[in-house]
Design brief:
The protein is mostly helical and about 100 residues long. The chain has four helices and no strands. It is elongated and about 55 Å long. It comes from Colobus angolensis palliatus (Peters' Angolan colobus). InterPro entries: Intracell_Sig-Traffick_Protein (IPR051866), MIT_dom (IPR007330), MIT_dom_sf (IPR036181), MITD1_N (IPR045331).
Length: about 100
């Protein structure tokens, strides 16, 4: 998925590799790691875009960048929401987890 439309130059290859990993992490629900990979991959694609002269390739790169940015933004919103919910529900804490370990011993 990430490789289609990208050339064989080192930046394109790096972008494809990083974005492929982002998609894998995303599908495994490892969102913080996926977000980092999406961000790095997007940065690499932007560098490729700057060096691309062909208008068709530029258009394709813009579409890919937009798609990956949308996904990264959705993940970021989800992670922020999870963080807020964790602040609002302090009922289960590390202390509770530690206490329950002692109860089992």
């Amino acid at each position: 998925m990430a490789k289609s439309g990208l050339g064989q130059d080192p930046q394109s290859t790096a972008a494809a590799t990083v974005l492929k990993r982002a998609v894998e992490l995303d599908s495994e629900s490892r969102y913080p790691q996926a977000l980092v990979c999406y961000q790095e991959g997007i940065d690499l694609l932007l560098q490729v875009l700057k060096g691309t002269k062909d208008n068709t390739k530029r258009c394709n790169l813009r579409e890919k960048i937009s798609k990956y940015m949308d996904r990264a933004e959705n993940i970021k919103k989800y992670l922020e929401q999870e963080k807020e919910e964790a602040k609002e529900t302090p009922g289960i804490s590390l202390r509770f987890c530690c206490e329950s370990k002692h109860l089992r011993s």
